[in-house]
Every structure is written in C-alpha cells, then in structure tokens.
C-alpha cells in the first residue's frame, strides 16, 4: 500500500515537472480588505503571525538541526520567554504544514550558514526573532483557497477574508504556493501561478496596427475591429437607485438598500472588465500566433482617455496594447511622435489630415484610402525599418480573410474590411495597389 502510494506521488511529481517546462511562473500581490474583516478575524490574523514567531523561537531554542520536522510539527504548546520568565502558549492557529515549512526554512538557513563556514567565512548563529512577517501557505486547495466569484481568500483554520486584486490572476492558470505577508499592519497574499508559455512564431510575416478612438483597432491588411462592451441599461437604473439611497453623515454609510445596490453595480463593472480582457486576449492571441513582427505606435493613450473618456474606457485599448506587447514574438514599437497619419500607402506622399477626415484622396497619385488603414500601413513600414528587420513575407488575401472570420467569431466584436462600404471601382484599386510596396 505504502509503496503504491509513494509510486503515485513520484509519478505525480514527474507529471508536474514536465508540465512546468511548458509554463512560466508569475506572481501577484493580493491585498486583504481590512474594511471588510471582522475584529475577531483580524485578531486571529495577528495571532497567527505571533504563533509563527513563538514556534520559530521554540525551534531555535531546541536546536534547529536537532528538530525532527514530522515530530515537531505536532507540537501544540510552546514555552515563551516573557520578561525573563517562561510562560506556556497554545498554538491554535498555526497548522502542521505551516510549522513544517518554518522548520524547513530554518534548517535550510543553517545549511547555508554551514556552507559559508566551510568557505572560510565567519558566520554568526541564528538569533531569536522579534517578529515574523510571512507565513508560507504551501498547498493551494488545502492550506488556502481563492474564490474568484466571492472575491475571498480562505485560509485553513482562519476562515474567509475579502480580498482586493484577484482580477489580476489569469483565467487559465495553475495556482500553487503563496506567502501571507504582514506589512505595517496590512496583510497581503503573494500568490505564485503557472501560465502556459506563449508559443513563439517564426514566419517572417509582419502586420501594422493603428489604435484609434473611433475605429478602435485597424490593421495594415485593411481589417478594422470595433468592440464595445456596453454598460447594460440596468446599470444606469441601478445608479439612479443608488444616488437616491440615504446617506448617513455620521456613520458615513449608505442605507442597507444603497449598499446592496452598490455591490450589484460593482459586480457589473467587474463582469464588464472581464469581458474586455477576454476580447483583448483573443485578438492579441490571433495576431501573436500568425505574425512574427507586430508594429504599433506608442500613442499617448492616457491623454486620449482624458480627452475622450468614456469611449476609451469601454474598450481599454491600452490594455490591448499591453497584452499584445507581452504576447508577440517581436514587437516593433514606433515612437509616439513619428508621423504615421496622412501618408499615402501607395506612393508615400505625405499630407496633413484633419481629425474629421476618415477617408482621403492622395493629391499625388489620386488613390482613395482609409485614414486608419494607411496609418497602420505606415506604422508597419516605420517599425520594420526602425528595427532593421529586413525582408518579410507579404500578407496574402487568404490569411486576411481567415483573420476576418476569426475576429467576427469573437463576442462583442465587429470586424470588417475597410472599403467594404466603398464603391467596387475604388475597391479594385485598393486591392491591386498594395503589391507596390509589399515585400
Ligand atoms: Zn499616393
């Protein structure tokens, strides 16, 4: 039986190790929301760190190398020196796993000191500690659990805690260990997760991207993407109810009903944010798996936000650009002041365009083109030359239409080819012409 069990654990370990080779580790800081934690639970949290300190000092006093982890982790009471006298303290919150880790860490420290000593360095003894600032939570699903929906952290033996920042954790990931941290009276969780490594493409295909306020994402192959995850009407109604709810100036609290409505509104916002992230991820994923070189301009999105506010907020194109940067094999960033608008994509003639001119006719070659597509096109070539990429493969019609199909399949996304609305005659010109500069 025991043999079988050991065998199983070994296999599981091997499986995990193989899986980790295809993954990257990331860590996130989650904050415990003190305003939503009861007095009793706060006391328990403080006590946990105190018990950790008592136990650490108990092991140090016993002699770290003499400690036998699987026996000492069963210790339920320790003697603590208070004003020169020893008093007994109960360990009621520190779990066996937490104790085990404290012992392991101390023993590793001793080993490290021993190694240093061998190298002829003078080393001191391990001293008693005055305070402990981190508790290791070894096993996700056992020592601790996160509930993304309820936005809570469950710690074994201590219960549930409301937390802030869970949305940073990606949907598809393996959550592993965590550290519970105390910092100036605030509590944090440092979670380590494993996410799949992005596959790198090597196909020497390049694409340029133009980010805008009106047509949100435009690609150099002529595809335009708009996506608005609109706030549903019921949220507006909820706002009205909330603003009418009573506010108590003394307690600085809304009425019960007001608080309930606010919770609902927050939930809607969180939902909307997740939808936006999802759309961003899907589009960026397609680009990253099909194009080795991706050029984009470092536009001042923050300033746009100030100017246009709501609309930018609804799409979070800043979020899209960051996702893209992270995912693509070779991002080609073009400076924010480089001129990319108003350059004819057929002959290179440069002119000044007003913000209202969405389509323009080149005064030199007479070709009509979409402002954003030509900007994406200019961005692509600016990026390629700026980063000395050399020759790239031309983008063909087949890949453009499969990209269009894919983008159309994403919820909330409207994708089209610029020019679909134009007259067929102009379409013809637009289709034959790019070969002049492609490749
Ligand atoms: Zn021209």
Provide an overview of this structure.
The protein has 439 residues and is α+β, with helices and mostly antiparallel strands. It has twelve helices and 19 strands. The longest helix has 35 residues. It is 41% helix and 23% strand. Strands 4-8-9-1-7-6-5 form a seven-stranded antiparallel sheet. Strands 16-15-10-11-12-19 form a six-stranded mixed sheet. The chain is elongated and about 95 Å long. β17 and β18 form a beta hairpin. The chain binds zinc ion. Zinc ion (ZN) binds next to loops.
How are the elements arranged and paired?
Layout: H1 2-21, E1 23-32, H2 39-62, H3 69-72, E2 77-82, E3 85-90, H4 96-118, E4 134-137, E5 144-147, E6 152-155, E7 159-164, E8 174-183, E9 186-196, E10 206-211, E11 217-219, E12 223-227, H5 233-244, E13 247-248, E14 253-254, H6 256-290, E15 293-297, H7 301-308, H8 310-315, H9 317-327, E16 330-334, E17 359-361, E18 368-370, H10 371-386, H11 397-408, E19 413-417, H12 424-432
Parallel strand pairs: 10-15, 15-16
Antiparallel strand pairs: 1-7, 1-9, 2-3, 4-8, 5-6, 6-7, 8-9, 10-11, 11-12, 12-19, 13-14, 17-18
Helix pairs in contact: 2-4, 5-6, 6-9
The structure holds zinc ion (ZN).
């Amino acid at each position: 039986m025991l043999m079988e069990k050991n065998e199983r654990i070994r296999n599981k370990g091997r499986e995990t190790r193989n899986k980790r080779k295809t993954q990257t580790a990331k860590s996130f800081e989650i904050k415990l929301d003190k305003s939503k934690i009861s007095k009793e639970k706060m006391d328990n949290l403080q006590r946990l760190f105190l018990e950790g300190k008592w136990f650490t000092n108990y092991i140090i006093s016993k002699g770290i190398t003499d400690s036998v982890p699987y026996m000492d982790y069963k210790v339920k009471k320790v003697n603590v020196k208070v004003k020169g006298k020893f008093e007994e303290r109960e360990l009621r919150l520190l779990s066996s796993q937490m104790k085990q880790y404290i012992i392991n860490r101390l023993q590793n420290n001793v080993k490290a000191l021993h190694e240093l000593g061998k190298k002829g360095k003078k080393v001191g003894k391990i001293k008693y500690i005055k305070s402990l600032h981190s508790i290791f939570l070894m096993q996700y699903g056992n020592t601790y659990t996160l509930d993304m929906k309820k936005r809570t952290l469950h710690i074994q033996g201590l219960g549930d805690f409301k937390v802030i920042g869970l949305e940073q954790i990606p949907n598809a990931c393996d959550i592993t260990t965590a550290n519970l941290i105390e910092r100036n009276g605030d509590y944090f969780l440092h979670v380590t997760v494993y996410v799949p490594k992005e596959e790198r493409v090597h196909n020497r295909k390049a694409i340029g991207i133009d980010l805008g306020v009106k047509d949100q994402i435009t690609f150099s192959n002529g595809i335009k993407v708009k996506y608005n995850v609109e706030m549903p009407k019921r949220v507006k109604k909820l706002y009205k109810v909330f603003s009418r709810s009573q506010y108590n100036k003394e307690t600085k609290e809304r009425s019960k009903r007001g608080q309930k409505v606010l919770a609902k509104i927050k939930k809607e916002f969180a939902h909307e944010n997740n939808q936006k992230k999802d759309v961003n991820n899907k589009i960026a994923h397609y680009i990253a798996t099909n194009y080795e070189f991706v050029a984009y301009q470092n536009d001042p999105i923050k300033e746009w936000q100030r100017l246009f506010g709501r609309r930018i907020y609804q799409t979070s194109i800043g979020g899209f650009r960051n996702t893209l940067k992270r995912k693509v094999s070779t991002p080609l960033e073009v400076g924010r002041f480089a001129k990319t608008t108003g350059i004819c994509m057929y002959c290179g003639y440069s002119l000044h365009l007003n913000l209202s001119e969405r389509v323009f006719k080149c005064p030199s070659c007479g070709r009509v083109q979409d402002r954003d597509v030509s900007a994406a096109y200019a961005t692509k070539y600016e990026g390629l030359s700026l980063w000395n990429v050399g020759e790239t493969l031309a983008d063909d019609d087949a890949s453009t239409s499969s990209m269009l199909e894919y983008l159309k399949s994403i919820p909330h996304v409207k994708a089209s080819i610029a020019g679909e609305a134009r007259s067929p005659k102009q379409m013809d010109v637009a289709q034959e012409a790019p070969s002049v500069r492609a490749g």
